[in-house]
Write a structure and sequence with these properties.
alpha/beta; six-stranded parallel beta sheet; 9 helices; elongated; Nucleotidyltransferase, domain 5; 2 domains; 31% helix; three-stranded antiparallel beta sheet
Length: 255
């Protein structure tokens, strides 16, 4: 958890589900402190009735915005206006935008232009443009997944290899290649950062793994080694691409 990072959590209640807010705020806590928590919508309408208990339990401030015209979502505009006010207050380090609506794409871009972090949260139906506009995007379906059953070490089955689709595998290979050192190994933290920059929605949990390190260990084309960190007395993971075995090409001597 990065306690010094102050974040504003702005929720488009019309495009988010109250049932996942507890898990969502727990996820946000890994990025920083939610200094501002607001949810926008027309709270006089029946479709937002289920939010009441969640707002109280999670200390989220409801922002009332009446729908002046049928079919138009006025809460989007209210959220954007508040975001710009918070942006210019210069008291925050980033924003968490909770919505599956593409209307917030420009807002995310503007916040990043100001040098602030943008974390997006939405369902898989979220348009690609909004996903790409965020520094990191998390699909809320991941947060709803039940925890895996706890198995004893004796009964635990070995992890099965994971096969990525071609595009994702290529992205991982490019990240490792870009971050590798002379020995071919690359720090996993650097590789993870490069992957997120290339694909903000990339998440190891989408592949059934809790952490990126677990995912890397289950890829057949990746070698993982543990390296002692002299500064923290901890362990860092480094990864390396495993070359496919094949015929060795003859190299003519230099004349």
């Amino acid at each position: 958890m990065k306690e010094n990072v102050k974040l504003a959590v702005l929720i488009d209640a019309d495009n988010a589900q109250a049932a996942i807010i507890k898990e969502l705020l727990a996820e946000i806590a890994t990025f920083g402190t939610a200094s501002v928590k607001r949810a926008y919508g027309d709270w006089t309408t029946p479709n937002l009735k289920g939010w009441k208990e969640t707002l109280h339990a999670m200390a989220i401030q409801p922002i009332q915005q009446f729908s002046y015209t049928t079919g138009k979502n006025s809460s989007d505009s209210a959220l954007i206006i508040d975001a710009m006010d918070l942006l210019h207050s210069q008291k925050l380090d980033g924003f968490c935008l909770v919505s599956s609506d593409s209307d917030f794409t420009r807002l995310a871009t503007r916040v990043r232009e100001a040098g602030m972090l943008v974390y997006g949260f939405g369902e898989h139906k979220t348009p690609a443009a909004f996903v790409a506009a965020c520094d990191k995007f998390i699909y809320t379906e991941i947060l709803r997944q039940p925890p895996p059953p706890v198995l004893s070490p004796i009964k635990a089955a070995p992890s099965q290899p994971i096969v990525l689709d071609g595009e994702v595998e290529q992205m991982v290979r490019q990240a490792v290649t870009a971050a590798k050192r002379d020995d071919g190994f690359a720090p996993l933290s650097v590789v993870g950062s490069l992957i997120i920059k290339s694909s903000p929605a990339f998440d190891a949990r989408s592949f059934g793994c809790d952490k990126l390190g677990e995912l890397m260990r289950r890829l057949s084309f990746i070698e993982v080694k543990e390296v002692a960190n002299e500064k923290t007395s901890g362990i860092q993971l480094h990864v390396k691409l495993i070359r496919k075995k094949g015929p060795v090409a003859a190299i003519a001597p230099v004349a």
